[in-house]
Design goal:
By secondary structure, the protein is an alpha/beta fold. 45% of the residues lie in helices and 16% in strands. It is built from nine helices and nine strands. The strands form two sheets. It has a seven-stranded parallel β-sheet, sandwiched between helices. Helix 1 crosses helix 7 (221-233), helix 3 packs parallel to helix 4 and helix 4 (96-124) packs parallel to helix 6. It is globular, with a radius of gyration of 19 Å. The mean pLDDT is 95.
Amino acid sequence: MTTWLITGCSTGLGRALAEAVLERGHNAVVTARDVASVGDVTKAYPETALALALDVTDAGQIAAAVREARGRFGGIDVLVNNAGYGYRAAVEEGDPEDVGRLFDTNFFGAVALIKAVLPEMRERRSGTIVNVSSIGARICPPGSGYYAAVKSALEGMTGSLRKEVGPLGITAMAVEPGGFRTDFAGRSLAQSELAIEDYAETAGKRRKEHDRAHGNQPGDPAKAARAIITAVESPEPPGLLLLGNDALEAYGAVLDAQRAEMDKWRELSAGTDL
């Protein structure tokens, strides 16, 4: 039996993952900003589930959640940084305060939780950190520049973290889902108030009022949750786990395009050494 601390469990992937972890007999610290929203997930597992209020931008709540988790279960084996939301805006349209909040939640909140759990993991020489990213970090759609940036930051940090903690017996991995049938494109998607007409045919097409993806995504959150558990429990967890056929196809297309562009400019690139 392992103990998982999962953020952002009120809906979507976080909720599905909490349910799957508990169904498999593990302990789960199930967190959300509104703790009442996860009561139905935890009530069936009084011995193995702990519901806690957690706003990942609140340092005091982070410290309290980690402290309560340790007090109840003795330690945290798996941290899943899932809490987050999307933001749509052309780069020129982005509001600085909106962008700051986006990074505070999706990046700096994850970093704060990692720092909170790592001392104990280092002491035990074991543990897993899972950071939920997005295929958006790879494909960089118009209108999602800031979201792609925050998830790219999360992935870059995860890659370095993996090299730092690997020799200590700790695993860090990023998860890149494609489109999943969650609230991400609905309740969990914000956008700029400003809409510049010149971007109507690029970023504008992906504003919420024009987006038809919500409710039509191909991915099943329950299957994604089981896939994450399988990866975490494998002898050699991946550094990057793609979820969904759409993510696989998009990732492959990006790799092919990047390779082609690198080869096209190889001579110029190679001619800059002393």
